[in-house]
Structure formats: structure tokens, C-alpha cells
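Ligand: N-carbamoyl-L-aspartate. Inputs:
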Amino acid sequence: MKTLTITKPDDLHLHVRNGAILKTVMPHTARQFARAIIMPNLKPPVTTVAQALAYREEILQAVPAELDFTPLMTLYLTGSTSVDEIKKAAASEYIHAFKLYPAGATTNSDSGVADIKAIFPLLATLEKYDLPLLIHGEVTDDACDIFDRERVFIDTSLADIADNFPGLRIVVEHLTTTEAVQFVQAAGANIAATITPQHLLFNRNAILAGGIRPHHYCLPIIKRESHRLTLVEAATSGNPKFFLGTDSAPHLTSLKETACGCAGCYSAHAALELYAEAFEQADALDKLEGFASFYGADFYRLPRNTGTVTLEKTAWTVPPEYGENGSTITPLKANEELRWKLND
Ligand code: NCD
Ligand code: ZN
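Predicted complex:
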């Protein structure tokens, strides 16, 4: 049987929520990854070190006892984040970054930043204390076509941030366009990016052709095929600027399958299997380990993991849902067959 063994990977962009959903999803991620960068867009958002430490405890409670998993906490940057809080975060061994959401760009981003220029003093503080800035790179202008929002953000805001803070480490999260890939490739070593499994596997037909598929709806929205091909090329290139971040974003099935469904794809149940499919299709399985296990850790200046995980070339069918009756989550590729399977 064909197998693939790689160093234990990290997920550098993950939503685990809290309460009942956290209990459902945490075992999935802890089985696949040694560590994950935890997104702070709870309701209310995680804006202080004290909140992040309490959230970290809640996450650890949800990790099955037999698994070893380390949550890497982040804080939600707002217009009222204080310089003092940034200093506290820099001094904490548990806080690894700040997340910038343009106000209204995505799920739970109401507390995000409306005027990016106005927070430049905070970005200067992040640069000074060497804390990475994680960016949801989309404009929120209603007049801007949803398929153009990432490209326009690069031109109007990201280039400006990068120029003004040449020492700031930036992760452009969940890339979806050729323009974003080119921006990151051309930037200095301080600028890197995450790529999700859904943006490597699907183009926008997966959302809209032959019927609306709400479980393929996430933000930034999946783009046309030419963009997918550029993303696959970047992820499988061996360029350390591109690394794994699933953006697994669980929502209750009832909140996805409705007249105005939430944005977010749930992929934690089969993250490595999904990436393996994408890398195999590109004939680049040998590039998976760098992308999944080395480049993200290096960028965040964390030691590389020491254990390994093994994937087997064994077909299995993804269940229709996870969770308890009435509060279930529909996973990516529900009821479909996957070619790779992670060994326990
Ligand atoms: C994420 C969520 O649900 O929290 N949704 C998504 O579509 N990706 C937020 C985000 O990362 O944009
Ligand atoms: Zn996200």
C-alpha cells in the first residue's frame, strides 16, 4: 500500500469557536496537527491577553487526553487596541500574532478596523515588538464586486502597509488570487501567506454550477480556475513563503443551509487528506512536508515538530455530518470519497 509519512504538521490558520462546537471540532484538529494558530473572531472577539489565556484553557479542555496539541493564540486588532496590550502580548509566550479584519469583511468582523491608516501607530508597535500581523485581505466597499475584493485590497491597503512597515512580519491569510500570489512572491522575506484546501481543490463552479452549494461558500470567495491553478503552483513550489492554513471555519449546518448562509468551510476532519489530494493532482506530494510542517513554523520562529504522521492511500467516505443532533456541522466533501486517509 502506498503511504506518505511527514513530520507532524501545523495549521497556521484555524477557527475552533467555543462551547459545543469547540468540543466537536477540537479532536479533529488535534489528531492532525501538533499546533494551530487560533483565530480570535469569537463573539465578543478576543482582544486582550487575559481573554486569550482563558480561551486557551477552554481549548486545552477540549483536546482528547491521549493527544498532544498546542494552541497558538492570537489577538483581534481593533481601533481601540492599546500599545500597552501589544506590549503585554509580546511578553506572553502564548500569544503569537495579531489579526487584522477590515470591519465587516467576514464572519464576526464587526469589531474590525474601519480605517487602516488610523491604526498605523499600532502597526508600528507590532513592528517594534516583532509580533506578526495576520491580515484578512479584502476590501469591504459595497460597490466592489465580491470577486475583486482581495485584488483591490492589495492595491489600496496591503501595498501601503508593506511599504510603511518593512520590518513587520505579515501573513496574508487564505490567498485566493493570482494577484495575491504575485504580491507575496515579490515581497520581502517578512511577508508570507497561508493557502486553504478549498482554494486548492475548487474553483467557483463548485459554489454555483448545477445548484448552490453553501458548504463551498467561504470568504474570500473561491475564484475562477486560473486563480486556482496559480495557488496550486505556489503551494507546491517549495517556496517557504507559502504554507498551510486550513481556515477551517465551522458553522452549524442550519446556519449554512439557509436563505442567508454563513461564510466558512469546515475542513478540520480531513485537512491533510484534502491537501494530499491537491498535491497529488499536481504530482507534487514530495512538496507537502515543507508546506505543511516546516515553512509555517519557521516563519513564526517556532521549533519544527519532531513526531510524524502517516497518510495511507486508502479510500474512505466522509460522514454527512459531525456533532450532536440538532447542532451538527457539515464537513467539506460530506458523503464523498477521499483517496487518502490519516493513520491514527
Ligand atoms: C471565517 C469564519 O467563519 O470565522 N469564515 C470564512 O469564510 N473564512 C472567517 C474568515 O476567516 O474570513
Ligand atoms: Zn479564517
